[in-house]
């Protein structure tokens, strides 16, 4: 689920269709099917609708039309249970989400027909349609308003213990419920939708730790938008180091690419990934002796360096092994091409001898520019990158003893870095980049693709 300025990684775990919409930061697209699952779970499966409708009291119903046209009154009418609720969602381009709830409402009360009083049970089919629009965006939050709420009543079944009920009572009940239920149900739907909005915003606005290195603060960046095919969400991802300093990354707009038949798509930009890598890959300088216990090619590296030492350098040669210091230079840079990701990383390699008097003799100071192949996976809601050595370019920065030709050192330095530095980097990356828990949609059966995305 990623997208970048020029290139992008796209994880498909949902639906995104072709679009000309422009988003900045991290971009998400949620299909109508996913929205239906999310809202059905929040409103129906978690009992939110039942909870707020429970005990709903309806106005008394008075009229003529009971047995032998005697006066009829129904009092204490209240909702007992919401039966067989079903929820569906449609996305209205430029407007928002159309939510439809169909259910059977079980009502109960007291019925007085003439002088005969008994319990009455009413089962009424209702269909509530509400158009929901997001408005008033501020600091990662939006308000939701219901612009239109339509409540249509269907079949009504009325049951009295005596069974003495005329058709005219059915008409009175239908007429009264048609007049009163919409005014009672739509405000409840409004309350429920606003509670769900708060709950879902909590999945978008979150501060997630990245090991002990820092945090990523995800936040809704602008008002959601809808096409007929998906709900679009724009997220910012602030990458913060311990102490609060933010690692900057570009948030210029990018167009969503055409995607197919998925529930959710999350696009992560190249610049955001670079900021996250800078947070994760913070390896302190590594100093060690050049011995086979440290890496297998130690003796070959020492022999190769020995052939480069000038003949007249008496202090260059000794019985103790060489010492090596590895220092990361600058920040890692991820490059994304079609179906390929590479991390560029520079390392300084210092080869030195520590004399008996404590002075340091720098035999070589090399700069290695690495091209690291990237493997991408999802584990526990996190993006995990694994690196392997793809290419190395070696250059000589300085030598205190006059070494100038280092062409024979490249294979030895490749082995050195592959065995000593790369395991440390992969260990740091194994923490993974935490991904936003968009609307609580689980990241399962995730497809990962790397796409070249043209800038707008």
Structural write-up:
With 456 residues, the chain is an alpha+beta fold. Helix content is 21%, strand content 48%. It contains six helices and 22 strands. It has helices at residues 32-45, 48-53, 167-204, 270-280, 298-306, 410-429; strands spanning 7-14, 22-23, 26-30, 61-64, 71-92, 96-113, 116-138, 141-160, 206-210, 214-220, 225-226, 231-241, 246-247, 254-255, 263-269, 286-289, 323-337, 340-354, 360-379, 382-398, 433-434, 447-452. Strands 1, 3, 9, 10, 11, 12, 13, 15 and 22 form a nine-stranded antiparallel beta sheet that branches. A six-stranded antiparallel beta sheet has the order 16-17-18-19-20-21, with helices on one face. The chain is rod-shaped, with a radius of gyration of 34 Å. The model is unreliable at 1-24 (pLDDT under 50).
Keywords:
6 helices, 22 strands, alpha+beta, 456 residues, 48% strand, nine-stranded antiparallel beta sheet, disordered N terminus
